[in-house]
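Q: Here's a chain of 108 amino acids. Please give me its 3D structure as tokens.
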Amino acid sequence: MRQGMDDELYNSVQNYYDNPHFTPRERLAAEYAERFAVDHTSVDDDLWSRLQEHYSDSELLELTVTIGFCVGLGRAFQVLDVARDFDVLWSKEPKHEHTHEHEPEERK
């Protein structure tokens, strides 16, 4: 696996599924990460079988823990209102419109 990405490849990661610059393993890892983050119930036997064709059990464990850590960290940042200054789509999940009486004005 190559280390790092140039800006062009990084900015095209949302099109991993048909980008020829990603290896089959990278495309599969990106699909797994996306499904895990957006709808973990869509990680089905078919995806798991395809993952097992390309990754060892220890690689799958590491990939799963890394994805889970990144999803959790992203959600924690959202809850803590961290990194709001960046123009980045952090999640494909629908936005929730919650307002609470005790919520500070700048967060409403």
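Q: Can you summarize the key feature?
A: The mean pLDDT is 81.
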